């Protein structure tokens, strides 16, 4: 089938040309490509060319090439950035992700640029089958004979290889390299490759690349949702968008495959022609993944050591989604080496670490479970309720007919290592000796994912025993009053039995050296808890809601203990002590009236107690350094600070929503450095601040006027203070990091004066620091933009400015930078907002320079909802060009972009709309070699030189004056536009 793709360039959709094109389109004769006309983003010619090329490429290479083109370009860009020598790149990704397909696409795309090209598919298989020398002769020798028309086997001698090929550009692709020694041996014999040659290697094992001296690795990600649907539809329905399809089931398939092209292709083929029973067919495939997919994953699994295999299977059955540190502790308790093992699994793409949790795709998990079911006759890890029921259920208590209908699985209790049972919708009686012969059981987790149904296991005859080798005992709604008498907890790492009927833990708690966590929350029958005397390595104790527990032992000697939760233990009246390094202490809802001073003084911000009790306790503690009163909703007034808090350093009163005023703290609280008042929505007045305060948070308060701020203040966050009208600054010290975002009650005059004073003070400080030979402080200020404000910066429209730049005889101290950022109403994901500044320049001798700088506006986890336009002011001292008196800069360009904390562009909803740069110079003599000085978007009257008028060497641009490109740059742009237009035909010829 031939495909015709008309490309309309500079054609109005209303013209007659579109009329006949649409009729052809409706008749099915052509496939027309239209640029994204309806998009709010206007594409450049180069972007349109790329758009057309991608469209044509994917039409010509349908099912096997969906989503490939953009990846080919990314790899090409990475290679172009490497120096002109023997270049190399690794392609790394999970099994089935498309590494081979991508490598072939890159090979086909680039091979015409090389004198000799060689693609070795299934490298490991070929290497071990042929051997090193035979493989070299078969692949490289064959190419030599073809290129030079040389006969005979002597061509493979290393000296002849080197002589014949050292001046040739060679492309070598090694696909699916698993054995790092084999890959390294092969490449070592190609050490004669000349400059411009390229080595590409694919592997699921990231370590292979480092072993083979390939240090740039391209990570292949899965297809996005649109690409995944397209590939699935093409294989299941032979159409990009089928007319009749259950989209919910299709999206379930897409989600399950997680963007894996091999899985999408195979599932599409397996479900082809099964429209009516697609849902049932998909469920069957999930239970037993197709053999082709299993083979790919098993090929990687077979290369793992026993340590990694066991860890992988435990994660698949038990620990998927769990905290990485928790998983490591549990596996270390089994004498495994999880730190090494998990790293290897990550490098082989079998598991991932995301947000500090261990993750695994649904597909990999199901294949791992299929491996367990198929490896041995008796399963070592159990998760299927029907199989577990066969092991645990008491046959004597069932009706004869029901008992005879129970399936027989041939399970052997001695082989079982873990049980993971969801008791939702289960009700049956468990035999007394159910766990008697499970000598190898390491993990036992019995839980209920639908808590409203309660537990479904009954023990009419009690429980005879539990295995002594258990590392994890997680049993929700445990129905008995105690653990089995003979149960020893010597190997236990975690005991988790919430909502249990336990009254005591029993006599088996003599040796608990390995125990890290105890969770018995809401065990309302628990009356005794004395296991801590022998649990020396305990890290967490959670007894929340144990309403009959009357005492809690002294834990001050347990140096590993970090968290204690006794909240809701209404009968506990005393607390004897906690270790000094405790991180969380929850005592809400208890009857405790006294706390040892050592507990509060070392980490009071972690003490959670009824608020009034906490305030009463703190009154007598003179050595307290940190106080956390966050969300004290019943706190309405703070009395005058007299004495008793002389060592207080950090006071957190965030979200104390009913407090209305604070007393004068100017002459007291001399040690206070951090005051957190954000979210105190009723706070209208602060009479004075401590003289040594460094950080102040007042965002979201109702403050109208900020009193005199201390000279020591470095950080001020007043985001969302919509009532704030004035702020008192003496500018003796330079403001460092001040945020007034969404403070819309500021007048334009106040904003102008504030920015002018900042600019003046920056210049003054620059001279002082220049004379003292010390580093100038960083400055970052955010304040609402007002069109009426008048400021020394006459800001240029757009995100960049460029000027011709002469040199001057005055040394450059730094740059004062001002940008205006527009925030749209639906702007999202501005956590850790920053401004990326790109500075480029050219000197008289033709040198082109470039540098980047990221100005952080707020912290990475901070994402305030910002509205309208805001001015950001920065002072930068490191962006010096290398122009000199002998070789001055011809032009300098600054470009600004709003980015996230990951340095990613935020798009049209948060963008720079104006910018300006002001040079700050310091006094100097005329004999210095001085970098070029520029002043962008500023008036002729300058604050940088005090009362002296500007020198003739300074160029001042008016705000509305266009900035022409240098003639050389204009010629470059013209040539680039011509090249872009011709690229379409060049690409279409090579596709």
TrEMBL record:
<dbReference type="InterPro" id="IPR032675">
    <property type="entry name" value="LRR_dom_sf"/>
</dbReference>
<dbReference type="InterPro" id="IPR044974">
    <property type="entry name" value="Disease_R_plants"/>
</dbReference>
<keyword id="KW-0677">Repeat</keyword>
<dbReference type="InterPro" id="IPR036390">
    <property type="entry name" value="WH_DNA-bd_sf"/>
</dbReference>
<dbReference type="InterPro" id="IPR002182">
    <property type="entry name" value="NB-ARC"/>
</dbReference>
<dbReference type="InterPro" id="IPR027417">
    <property type="entry name" value="P-loop_NTPase"/>
</dbReference>
<dbReference type="GO" id="GO:0006952">
    <property type="term" value="P:defense response"/>
</dbReference>
<dbReference type="GO" id="GO:0043531">
    <property type="term" value="F:ADP binding"/>
</dbReference>
<protein>
    <submittedName>
        <fullName>(rape) hypothetical protein</fullName>
    </submittedName>
</protein>
<dbReference type="InterPro" id="IPR042197">
    <property type="entry name" value="Apaf_helical"/>
</dbReference>
<feature type="domain" description="Disease resistance protein Roq1-like winged-helix">
    <location>
        <begin position="307"/>
        <end position="372"/>
    </location>
</feature>
<dbReference type="Pfam" id="PF23282">
    <property type="entry name" value="WHD_ROQ1"/>
</dbReference>
<keyword id="KW-0433">Leucine-rich repeat</keyword>
<dbReference type="Pfam" id="PF00931">
    <property type="entry name" value="NB-ARC"/>
</dbReference>
<feature type="domain" description="NB-ARC">
    <location>
        <begin position="75"/>
        <end position="240"/>
    </location>
</feature>
<dbReference type="InterPro" id="IPR058192">
    <property type="entry name" value="WHD_ROQ1-like"/>
</dbReference>
